[in-house]
C-alpha cells in the first residue's frame, strides 16, 4: 500500500515508481452468469456473487443490458460510490436533490451516495429498439467518508485520454490511472481506483503496471485474452472476470496472432480498505447496527434521507408496465 494516498487529497497515481518486472498470477477466473435485476434489466454480475464477495474496495460489478421499457426506478443508496460506464445507448438519471442528467456511449458517471441518496437510472428508448449496455461498479467508501454529502461527476467520452502501444495493436482508454505514460485527467472517486479500457488486436501484447498492493481484476467484454505470469499462460474468454493475486507489479496479456477478433477488457485496480463490510442491498456500512440505522433512516426520511419524503422521479414514471 502506498504511503502517500490520502482520502481527501486523493492521488490516484502513487509516488513510488511503477514497474512491470513481476506480472501478477491469476487467482481465479469465472463466468459472470446472466440474471434479472431491477425492472426488466439483465445483468452479468461477477463481483458481489458467491464466486467473489467483497473484494475490497470493490463491492459489486454488473455488466448490464437494459432493453426499452426496463430500468432501475427509484431506489436508495448509502455508504458507497457507483461508477457507471456506458458502452452503448444512453442512460438518464435523476435524484431527490434535483440532480438530473444523461450519459451516452463512452461516457461515465461517478456517484457518491455518502450518507444517503434516492435516485432512478432509466434507459433511453432507442429508435431501433436496441438495449442500453454498460458496466456498473460499486466501490466502498472509507468509514470516515460514509456520511459525506452525496455528489455526482460525469466524465464524457471526449475527455478520456487514449494511449496506443505495441505498434498500434493495443489501444487503451485511460479513464482513471496511468497507461503507456498517459495519465487520466480527473480524480473522480474518493477511494483511489484505476479503470483502463483495453482493446487488443490479434498478435497484440500488453504489459501494464499496477499500484503495488492494490486489488485488481479484469472483465472480458469481447474476444479471448491470454494472461501470463511466470511462464504460465491462461486464455480467458468473453464475460469472464479474472481476479489477480496481490503479489507482483503488473499484468501481462496477449491476443493470439490467429484470433478471429480483437479482445476488449476492462482492467480495474483499487486500494483495499482496512474495514469491515456489512451490506444490506443498497446500504453498505461497517456494522449490523448501522444496517438497522440505515433502514430506519430511510423509512423515517431522516439523517440524509429527508428529501425522500414524497419524492418520485419523473423518469421513473416512464416505466412501461
Structure description:
There is one protein chain. The protein is about 5% helix and about 45% strand. By secondary structure, it is mostly beta strands. The protein has one domain (about 25-270): Sandwich (Jelly Rolls). Strands 1-22-19-24-17-14-13 form a seven-stranded antiparallel sheet, with no helix packed on it. Strands 2-3-4-11-6-9-12 form a seven-stranded antiparallel sheet, with no helix packed on it. It has a four-stranded antiparallel sheet with strand order 5-10-7-8, with no helix packed on it. It starts with about 25 loop residues before the first strand and ends in a 21-residue tail after the last helix.
Structure summary:
With 321 residues, the protein is mainly β. The protein is built from one helix and 26 strands. The strands form six sheets. A seven-stranded antiparallel β-sheet has the order 1-22-19-24-17-14-13, with no helix packed on it.
Q: What is the SS-derived class?
A: mainly beta
CATH architecture tag: Sandwich
Report the radius of gyration as a whole number of Å.
19 Å
- How far is it from the N-terminal to the C-terminal residue, by CA? 49 Å
CATH topology: Jelly Rolls
The CATH homologous superfamily is called: Jelly Rolls
Domains, number: 1
Uncertain runs: 1-9
Strand order of the largest sheet: 1-22-19-24-17-14-13
Largest sheet, strands/sense/barrel: 7 strands, antiparallel
| SSE pattern, N- to C-terminal | EEEEEEEEEEEEEEEEEEEEEEEEEEH
Amino acid at each position: 500500500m502506498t504511503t502517500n494516498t490520502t482520502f481527501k487529497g486523493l492521488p490516484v497515481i502513487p509516488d513510488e515508481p511503477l514497474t512491470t518486472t513481476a506480472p501478477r498470477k491469476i487467482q481465479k477466473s469465472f463466468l459472470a452468469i446472466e440474471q434479472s435485476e431491477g425492472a426488466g434489466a439483465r445483468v452479468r454480475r461477477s463481483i458481489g456473487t458467491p464466486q467473489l464477495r467483497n473484494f475490497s474496495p470493490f463491492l459489486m460489478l454488473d455488466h448490464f443490458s437494459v432493453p426499452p421499457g426496463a430500468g432501475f426506478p427509484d431506489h436508495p443508496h448509502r455508504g458507497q460510490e457507483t461508477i457507471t460506464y456506458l458502452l452503448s445507448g444512453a442512460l438518464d438519471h435523476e435524484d431527490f436533490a434535483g440532480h438530473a442528467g444523461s450519459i451516452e456511449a463512452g461516457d461515465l458517471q461517478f456517484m457518491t451516495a455518502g450518507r444517503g441518496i434516492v435516485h432512478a437510472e432509466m434507459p433511453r428508448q432507442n429508435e431501433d429498439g436496441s438495449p442500453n449496455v454498460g458496466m456498473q461498479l460499486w466501490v466502498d467508501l472509507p468509514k470516515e467518508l460514509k456520511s459525506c454529502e452525496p455528489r455526482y461527476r460525469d466524465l464524457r467520452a471526449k475527455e478520456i485520454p487514449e494511449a496506443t502501444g505495441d505498434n498500434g495493436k493495443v489501444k487503451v482508454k485511460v479513464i482513471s490511472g496511468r497507461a503507456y505514460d498517459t495519465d487520466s485527467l480527473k480524480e473522480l472517486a474518493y477511494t483511489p481506483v484505476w479503470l483502463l479500457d483495453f482493446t487488443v488486436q490479434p498478435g497484440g501484447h500488453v504489459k501494464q503496471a499496477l499500484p503495488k498492493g492494490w486489488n485488481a481484476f479484469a472483465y472480458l467484454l469481447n474476444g479471448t485474452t491470454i494472461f501470463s505470469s511466470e511462464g504460465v499462460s491462461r486464455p480467458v474468454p468473453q464475460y469472464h472476470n479474472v481476479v489477480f493475486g496481490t503479489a507482483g507489479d503488473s499484468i501481462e496479456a496477449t491476443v493470439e496472432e490467429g484470433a478471429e477478433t480483437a479482445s476488449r477488457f476492462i482492467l480495474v485496480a483499487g486500494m483495499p480498505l482496512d474495514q469491515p463490510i456489512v451490506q444490506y442491498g443498497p446500504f453498505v456500512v461497517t456494522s449490523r447496527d448501522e444496517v438497522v440505522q440505515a433502514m430506519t433512516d430511510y423509512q423515517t426520511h431522516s439523517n440524509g434521507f429527508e428529501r425522500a419524503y414524497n419524492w418520485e422521479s419523473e423518469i421513473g414514471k416512464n416505466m412501461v408496465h
